[in-house]
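User: Hi! I have a protein structure encoded as tokens and I'd like to know what sequence might fold into it. I'm fairly new to this, so please keep things simple.
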């Protein structure tokens, strides 16, 4: 009886290993993600506001509650509203940009802001990130100021966060992990400390 049970268990394990190994090749192209989805040029982008929102949700899910501001929301900025874009990002040239997404607290007195920028094939993501790092106003809230700015390229998209040093570092760490899980190449981090 024991031999029979051992043989049955071995058969079940063998079958599960075979089906697990074959599952990758059984997916259709819509289900392929990460490195397998890279086109020949190596471009990687999130494709919609829903994907960006899901990305931020995953990022924030790994951040301690006491480091995040109250009621953070992610919204898509209107690319035709130059004043709003300049206020939130410092950007005036939108060449190569397909979408700008802002993730901030509903409480305007909290110095925290994260920006995700989707680029297109003409976009120079590195130049966009540098422009953002140089021109965003870390004191845009008037009464408070962001202590630290951190940014990187996720594929050919731009990720940026500013706030307290602990918050910026932790949000960036979790965002980079979420990007790598999606198959993005994560560039070297850029950082800037602001005088308080």
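Assistant: Happy to help. Inverse folding works backwards from shape to sequence: for each of the 196 positions I chose a residue that suits the local structure. Here it is:
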């Amino acid at each position: 009886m024991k031999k029979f049970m051992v043989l049955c268990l071995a058969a079940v394990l063998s079958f599960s290993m075979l089906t697990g190994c074959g599952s990758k090749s059984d997916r259709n192209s819509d289900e392929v993600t990460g490195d397998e989805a890279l086109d020949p040029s190596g471009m990687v982008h999130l494709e919609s506001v829903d994907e960006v929102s899901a990305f931020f949700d995953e990022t924030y899910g790994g951040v301690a509650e006491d480091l995040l501001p109250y009621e953070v929301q992610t919204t898509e900025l209107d690319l035709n509203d130059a004043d709003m874009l300049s206020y939130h990002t410092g950007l005036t040239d939108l060449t190569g940009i397909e979408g700008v997404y802002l993730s901030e607290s509903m409480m305007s007195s909290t110095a925290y802001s994260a920006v995700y920028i989707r680029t297109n094939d003409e976009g120079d993501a590195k130049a966009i990130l540098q422009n953002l790092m140089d021109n965003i106003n870390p004191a845009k809230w008037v009464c408070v100021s962001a202590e630290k700015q951190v940014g990187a390229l996720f594929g050919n998209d731009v990720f940026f966060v500013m706030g307290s040093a602990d918050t910026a570092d932790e949000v960036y760490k979790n965002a980079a992990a979420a990007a790598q899980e999606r198959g993005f190449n994560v560039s070297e981090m850029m950082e800037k400390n602001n005088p308080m």
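A useful reference point when you look it over: DSSP finds five helices and six strands in the chain. Feel free to ask if any position seems puzzling.
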